[in-house]
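To assess whether the prediction recovers the assembly geometry, we first specified each molecular entity separately, as shown.
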Amino acid sequence: MKPFKFEQATTAVQASQTHADAAPNARFISGGTDILGEIKESVLEVNILVSLAGLSGASEIISSDLGLEIGALVTLARIASDQSIVETYPALAQAAESVATPQIRNVGTLGGNLCQRPRCWYYRSPLFDCLKKGGETCFASDEGNKYHAILGAENCHIVHPSDVAVALLALDATVVVSNASGDRQMPIGDFFVSPDVNMLAENVLEPGEFVSKVKIPKPSSGTRSVYLKAKERQAYDFALSSVAVSLEVRDETITQAHVVLGGVAPVPYSVPQVDSELTGQKIREVDVQAIGQLAVKDAQPLSDNSYKVRLTASMVARAVSRLISE
Amino acid sequence: MAQLPISYSASITLNVNGTDHQIEVDHRWTLLRVLRDVLGLTGAKRGCDRGECGACTVLVDGDPVCSCSMLALQVGGRQVRTVEGLGDANSLNVLQEAFLAEDGGQCGFCTPGFIMSATALLESNTDPTEDEIKAALVGNICRCNAYGRIIESVKAAAKSEAS
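The predicted structure of the complete assembly is given in tokenized form:
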């Protein structure tokens, strides 16, 4: 591991300026569980790590009639166990609970989870100079692509590793990012970018910018949500396929739907055709198998991951089925 | 002539098992490295070195963490507890006794990590169900596959504490 400097920022302005001044060889660190892995495995070289852990106000969960604000430094363990989240935003609590292990959830933060780098084994190995690392080849295109994308990928076939992001997109969350001159915010769907837009990053953050909080509107009284995740091991593992569904149900009819897929595309993947198909249906009349099939209609599996097409269809069917029988 | 890389160092106060240590650390050092190589506390093990196996588990402010996946600088000023803080060879604590009595360790490499995860569990839940024990230990791997005995050890410790 090459030497780097660890700088504890005490204000957002200081954090932002320190990062921007040292870009591109600076990174922010909060819990560090993801970035330290990248550094140890020689996938990433940094000159400076700017710690956000000392920033005030970024460790709070504020619940109100308008909704929820979660500071970027809130740990995944707190999100998974916070009573207001468990009761009102269950998909988010379930997604946080599904991450890694208790040890990782006690340290890993909301902001860090959203900004974690891909788990593609070519990206994570220093032996492969892949597209994501500025090289000229996606090694997953032809073989060794069991865990890669089946949707929304052109040249680089990563899947986005975050569970929490999938739930947040289904819950229509907004991401607040900060820099030295203030904040800007955007729907979480606009925060993430696919490799076709920017090969070297998975989000829109500019030098000096970091995620400071996430806001979620309060769901209406008829809204229910769920997050389901398929993985090879029941602990530690990333999603082979996951799905978050939020449904608003009034008088036995679905009045709003948002279905989001994880583990199958370079970004948390909305399927608006499924949302439109569900909206207006009587809950007793929903054909969940057909909904599952519709969710993967555009899938383009690689040589080793066609299992993900059936798996994802089944996960969607299961999630919708669970919500309409609640 | 090639220049030697500059390494950065800092002085931190690390509270380990109730004792403050003033330590000069390289910014790159993990908590695990400081515990083992600076303080000589070799209970926490370097297994996978990537947060997957749990052999390096210690408690920071009461919560189990992978000490391989945190920098020492992230832990300055916080309370660290390791297996060495629970008991020693002459006076094992209840969990350590239970692991001995129930044969909860085989090769023993993973045992300190399991015991630290179980310590955090029993401090927040004195009468855990088997499912709660499994959920608390899910971040610890035992390649000898002693899981059944490990779960029995935690149950025995809870029972022993209750009596």
